[in-house]
Amino acid sequence: MLGHSHALSGLAAGAATLPWAPVQGTVAQVAWVAAAGGFAMLPDLDHSGSTVSDMWGPATDVPSGAVGRLAGGHRWGTHDALLAPVAFGALALAAANLFWSSLLVMALAIGLALRALHFVIPGRAENTVVGNLVLSWGGAWLLLAHTPQPTWLPWAVALGVLTHVAGDLVTKQGVPVPLLWLLRRRRLALTPMRTGTTLEKAVLAPLFLGVALWFVYANTGARDVLDPYLQALRDLG
Description:
By secondary structure, the protein is an all-alpha fold. The chain has 10 helices and 2 strands. Helix 1 packs parallel to helix 9, helix 2 packs across helix 8 and helix 6 packs across helix 7. The radius of gyration is 18 Å and the shape is globular.
């Protein structure tokens, strides 16, 4: 799937899981949804030249090359539905108990979401290395400075990674058979859909956006804010 489809599906998954997410308060809910959306891009760190790899220049490109070699190439280890959430989640777990390391993880998530959703963001600052660094680190600081230590980060990482794998599972290229690909490289693919088709752009991406907006409305305080206005509109009709 395209980057923006992954990010939108991650936002939808984050918003849909809010009733069970280990977060409390509006700021923490926003952080959870943003993290799930950003981390739905993370498995493509195995591919040099991807949005993840290019985002912060050498700071992300160098690790991308190492991850790609360790994972066995693009769409292998980092797309394993069992290994990838555990591996990335473990890294987030190691970072979650310290402010500065959790800030880095959260900034990575926000930066990825900004890059993936750049087509709906005015200007191009989020597509530049410096602009993305400023926006992502600033956003991460604003969120984490006003919430308890985000011990939930590993769960958000795992959710985003699984959402990415599920998205690639419905494309022709598929994803590796969990664990068994280590013995014999085989992939699973549920449909013959190619990445970037009209179906993805015109149907799936808008669907993910609609689902995300609905669950944000249903699972946050947005319902209490919007309901009076919606009722007023209904009364006018």
